[in-house]
Design brief:
Distance between the termini: 90 Å
CATH class of the largest domain: Alpha Beta
Helix content: 40-55%
Strand order of the largest sheet: 18-19-21-22-23-24-25-26
CATH topology of the largest domain: TIM Barrel
Oligomer: single chain
Radius of gyration: 55 Å
């Protein structure tokens, strides 16, 4: 209650202050507007009087042209009219100057410097000059040019009284006016020390003196010049404005304008008093209302505060007894709170009986995989902990098998996660049907499943099961009208004591499973301690690969490819090399298999394609054009959805044609998903790229599918080339392959040519292209650019070799 009243008081005070401040600002703006109006009226009337006097002189002189026949005539005319001007136009003094500023006429002998300055300025500008000067008294000084009939220029200067200007200003502003002079010409002097200049005044001098003495000493001329000053005496209020009238730089004389604002001030004070009074009344009434309302609310809130803890204690009878009666006419929020509280009590009482049942259901959901219905990782950990603890009572070993599908990611990438989920459900059913009732199978995550075997007499039983699963999953998995051919990799580990934890068992099975994958998949592997070292090396390489991509540690070594029939260089195969800053040269066979199923492999593949375009551009800049560069495409990169767009971007950014870039695919990549492979190959062929099948004969060794693929080149693996000399079977294989491939309209490249005999035999077989150490070892890019001029003779490659 106190806080509410305090808040209301503060809010009301702030609102009142803002309201009053706004009223004060409006009041001050009115005074500022009045000050600005006085100043504008003074300048307007001064300009009007000056223009009127100039107009009279100009009209009078031009109507009587004889006056300007010569300077003497003009002087005589001015002398004759001086008394008229002094009487009717309040002219005090007259001076006439010729073009050399010599005095032609003056009504008295003394000529002040400011008169001469005004004449000089008029001669210079050849236009009238009007100023107000205050010497012993204030007057208006007007200098105007007069042109005689013979072309001589004269200047007429007149000083006029300010009485007419002040009279007009008094009529337009309704203000009492007086001329005042600042002591010693100091703007910072107090207004009360200013001296009234007689006789020019439109207010009684004694009253004005008394008024000035009431102004505080701290009020300076500068302060009044900017905004004016409001003086309040008893019930009277005056607005004092100070207007500069002296055009001299000293600014010593000012026009004092005094406005009677007593009625406005009284109205302003009355308004502010009313605001404060209303605010105080509102605060008092609101405080009283709050007090009366809060007392009733407080009593009911206390009852609610006593009831709510009874719900936590499940004392529902006492809770229902402690109710307050509510008014049927005036329902408020507390009544709604009590109604909701009563409803909450009823619901809590009804829910108590369901909590245990729901808890059991939630535990069941937390322990089983929603997709396959198999135990999940949480349940697996629970089962393994129990079985490890039971090893103390049984001599039989505990076997853990971790199963992972090879290339499962391709199913998700190519057909979507919906098809992938259906595949996992069918696979889970196939796994479950292959196990005994006592065996435990769990979905560990993704496409990984863990099998736990305890009631086995020997580890050989687990190996038998693993072989059975490998064979079983070589059969296609049917999802609707789709057939998926896949394989599995299994890792097996055993435990005969309580020296291992759950995490140790799963980690060992995982290591063994990756060893099976590294061996090509579609097999099982038993865990041994040597595998841990390989895993650590694998992790180290995976970590270093990321840094290598950022630091550009990968380089290309280019191996020349020559046309066998002519010996001419046709291009290069780009071979990846990793120069590690600490470990030195790392073999591709060591890091490529580790990268194959990671995002890093895709990044490295795109780097290779970009690099191939740059190599071709650099070769062309050196004068070596028309060559091609063969770059390997990994399976993960070839199935990447962004591949086509990436290749289009490279062609748009490069001046080299797509036919200069040869894309190498392995047999395994081609047959992994033949439908998607065909679609992507045709899209890339439309862009102009050529395709080659690398290491042909080492994979599925089938020529049947070649007729379906838009392949341009077949590369025979080096193992067959190496065996041609001493093995007639290998020689026949190479000969048959060359003949069949040529019939299909493709070119044949022989890899690994190391002797002149091999090159001669390939020439007899009509093989198209050869590459190998006999021709040239792989050469780093920078070395190749320097060596090409010495390696080529009219396009023919010589056998001088450059070591690297």
């Amino acid at each position: 209650m106190s806080l509410l009243i305090g808040f209301l008081l503060i809010a009301s005070s702030l609102l009142t202050i803002v309201w009053i401040d706004k009223n004060d600002q409006d009041y001050l703006r009115q005074h500022q507007a009045l000050h600005d109006r006085d100043l504008n009226q003074m300048h307007l009337i001064r300009e009007m009087l000056s223009n009127r006097l100039e107009l009279w002189f100009e009209s009078f002189i031009h109507l009587q042209q004889r006056i300007t026949d010569n300077s003497e005539a003009t002087r005589d005319f001015i002398s004759e009219e001086f008394d008229y001007l002094q009487l009717n136009w309040q002219i005090n003094n007259l001076w006439l100057f010729d073009s050399q500023q010599q005095v032609i006429y003056a009504n008295h002998q003394y000529i002040p410097d400011y008169v001469k300055d005004g004449a000089a300025q008029t001669l210079k500008n050849q236009s009238s000059v009007s100023q107000i000067r205050c010497v012993q008294s204030c007057f208006q000084l007007i200098s105007m040019p007069i042109l005689s009939t013979n072309g001589d220029l004269m200047v007429l200067t007149a000083s006029a009284s300010l009485l007419e200007m002040m009279a007009a200003l008094n009529r337009s502003t309704s203000a009492e006016l007086a001329l005042v002079v600042s002591p010693l010409g100091i703007k910072g002097a107090s207004l009360r020390d200013a001296q009234i200049q007689a006789p020019i005044s439109y207010i009684k001098r004694q009253n004005l003196d008394a008024l000035l003495k009431l102004i505080p000493q701290s009020i300076t001329l500068n302060m009044v010049l900017d905004k004016g000053y409001r003086l309040v005496i008893n019930e009277q209020a005056y607005l004092i404005n100070l207007l500069p009238v002296d055009d001299d730089i000293t600014d010593t004389a000012y026009l004092l304008a005094v406005h009677d604002i007593s009625e406005e001030w009284a109205s302003h004070e009355s308004y502010q008093f009313g605001v404060i009074t209303i605010s105080a009344i509102v605060v008092a009434l609101c405080a009283l209302t709050f007090f009366l309302m809060a007392e009733r609310l407080r009593r009911r809130l206390l009852i609610l505060a006593k009831r709510l803890p009874l719900l936590a204690q499940k004392k529902y009878d006492e809770f229902n007894d402690m109710k307050f009666k509510h008014s049927l006419m005036f329902l408020d929020e507390i009544d709604e709170v009590q109604r909701s509280t009563n409803l909450l009590g009823e619901q809590l009482e009804a829910m108590d009986g369901k909590i245990e049942q729901n808890t059991r259901e939630l535990e069941n959901i937390a322990m089983y995989d929603r997709l396959t219905g198999l135990p999940n990782r949480n349940m697996l950990n629970f089962i393994l902990r129990k079985k490890i603890a039971a090893l103390a009572r049984t001599p039989k070993p505990l076997v853990v098998i971790l199963l992972d599908f090879d290339n499962f990611r391709k199913i998700n990438d190519s057909y979507g996660h919906g098809v992938g989920d259906e595949f996992l459900m069918v696979a889970a059913q196939r796994l479950r049907s292959s196990l005994r009732e006592s065996d435990v199978i769990s979905r560990f995550g993704g496409d990984e499943f863990v099998i736990v075997l305890q009631e086995v007499d020997d580890v050989s039983n687990a190996i038998t099961l693993a072989e059975k699963l490998v064979i079983k999953f070589r059969e296609p998995v049917e999802i609707g009208a789709q057939r998926f051919y896949t394989s599995v990799s299994l890792g097996i580990t055993t435990c005969e004591g309580q020296n291992l934890t759950v995490d140790d068992l799963v980690r060992q099975a995982d290591i063994a499973m990756y060893a099976a994958k590294d061996a090509g998949g579609d097999r099982y592997s038993m865990f041994n301690e040597g595998m841990s070292t390989k895993v650590m090396r694998r992790i180290e390489i995976e970590h270093d690969v990321r840094d290598a991509l950022l630091d550009e540690q990968f380089k290309f070594a280019l191996q020349a490819q020559i046309e066998i029939s002519t010996g001419k260089l046709i291009g290069f195969e780009a071979l990846i090399r990793w120069l590690h800053p600490k470990n030195g040269y790392i073999m591709p066979d060591e890091f490529i298999p580790i990268m194959e199923n990671s995002e890093s492999m895709i990044t490295l593949g795109y780097w290779g394609i970009k690099r191939a375009f740059k190599i071709l551009a650099h070769l062309e800049s050196l004068g070596f054009s028309g060559y091609r560069v063969a770059v390997n495409l990994s399976a993960s990169q070839f199935l990447d959805p962004n591949l086509i767009n990436f290749m289009r971007e490279q062609l748009a950014q490069s001046e080299q044609g797509a036919e200069q870039v040869e894309l190498e695919l392995t047999e395994r990549t081609v047959v992994a998903d033949i439908e998607q492979t065909l679609r992507k190959m045709h899209e890339l062929k439309e862009l102009g790229f050529t395709f080659s099948i690398d290491d042909f004969g080492t994979g599925y060794s089938s020529l049947a599918y070649l007729s379906q693929l838009p392949v341009d080149i077949i590369k025979i693996d080096r193992s067959f080339i190496a065996g041609m000399s001493g093995n007639s079977a290998d020689k026949q294989i190479v000969k048959s392959t060359v003949a069949m491939v040529r019939k299909l309209g493709m070119k044949v490249v022989a890899e690994g040519v190391e002797t002149a005999e091999q090159l001669s035999m390939l020439k007899e077989m009509r093989c198209d292209v050869a590459q190998g150490y006999y021709i040239s070892k792989p050469i780093f890019e920078d070395d190749l650019y320097q060596a090409l001029p010495t390696k080529l003779d009219d396009g023919v490659w010589n056998k001088l070799d450059l070591q690297f």
